[in-house]
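Journal club prep — side note

Before the paper discussion, L.F. wants everyone to see what a predicted structure for a comparable chain looks like in token form. Sequence:
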Amino acid sequence: MSVLSRVLAVDKKKRLPKLSIQSVTELKGVGPAVADKLAHLGIDSVQDLLFHLPLRYEDRTRRTALGSLRSGQEALVAGQIQASGVRPGRRRSLATVIGDGTGSVTMRQFHFKRAQQENLIRGQWVQCFGQVRIGSAGFELVHPEYQLLQSADGVNVAPTLTPVYPTTQGLGQKTWRHLTRQALEHCLDDVVELLPADLTGLEGLPGLQAALMLVHRPDPDVDAAALAAGTHPAQVRLVFEELLAHQLAVVQRRLEREQSRAPVIDAPQNLWPRLRAVLGFSLTRAQSRVVDEVLSTLAKPRSSLRLIQGDVGCGKTVIAAAAALAAVEAGYQAVIMAPTELLAEQHLNNFERWLRHVDVPLAWLTGRLTAAERRVACQRLATGEAMVGVGTHALFQNDVTYHDLGLVIIDEQHRFGVHQRLALRDKRRVDSEVPHQLVMTATPIPRSLTMALYADMDISLIDEMPPGRQ
């Protein structure tokens, strides 16, 4: 049994994870302002927060003697202030020299307040963390995080590696660490493990709770190189979880689509053969194969979604024309939507030239039409006077209706959002049916990746160029 099947077979009665419905506003320190900033990053629930993973880590688990510092090193250091004052120059700065008996380092701040000048005085103990660089007077730390100490023995060494999170303006790293600490301490037990234990054990992967704890709070003796490379088993476990979630969503979308009814569009016996006779060129074997694949799925009463992949110039548009003519001959409308006006105009030129030979009326609809032109185009689509529509996103606007839409063709579909494609699909609601969908792309995607990303689609590959095209 596949991994997908085994996870799908998990007890349907397993409760919905509390974390997915527990708002981050229930955590201390999350008021309306912080909640709004988190929402901009797609974080609304505690579950979202736990899966907002660190970009990198800082090692504050050990203090480094000042005499052993190296340029480029990130280090936690501590010492007694030997001198502090504002240094004039091209860029005015507050320079604080710290010593620990083994050496010294200058803490330099170009942006500072009077209170900092008053606190950073000779004799005061201080610890700071930052990246070491070579300055005019030796090693220095520019704008490090620092903390005043009561004595030489008061150095605060972190118990774990310190995570650094992707953030947005107004959310500092201290806020992220404070929130994830709360989530881990109070909510980690609510994380639901969906993968079978024998599967994670076979792959040598930790459980989900253990993986989350490790990536947010790595022990000092963790394999830091693997963590930095993103190959630690805990990170692999979370990557596996995310990819599996994607695949489950794709499988669910396919199952739902296959349960939807669609109009039966039989292979055309008139319009497409007539067009082929006047095209002036012969289809390649790859084009003919893909035309057969497309027409075969259109003839089924279940909603189809097919991806046609092929290089620029391989002849995808003529396949779209064959599908559109099949829909028209069966009594249904077809629309061809492109992401830009330039690309839509190319389709318009081709379809106008081809459809003229078979007397199929066409409507052109984009955002640049005048109000009068748009009104006429919409009326022709609504009454069925125009059986083929060509245009841009204007085709799925709320005020655009269709007489009987049976086929939606989308070029460069990755440049449209899912909601945009669904909006066009929902233009047909006759007898609870939805239109067939045909999407085209010239973006080269490896076959294995195509199968993973577009597993909810049938895939047709045009792997042959017409004569004279490279």
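L.F.'s comment for the group: The chain has three domains: 3-55+164-235, 62-149, 271-461. Keep this in mind when we get to the figures.
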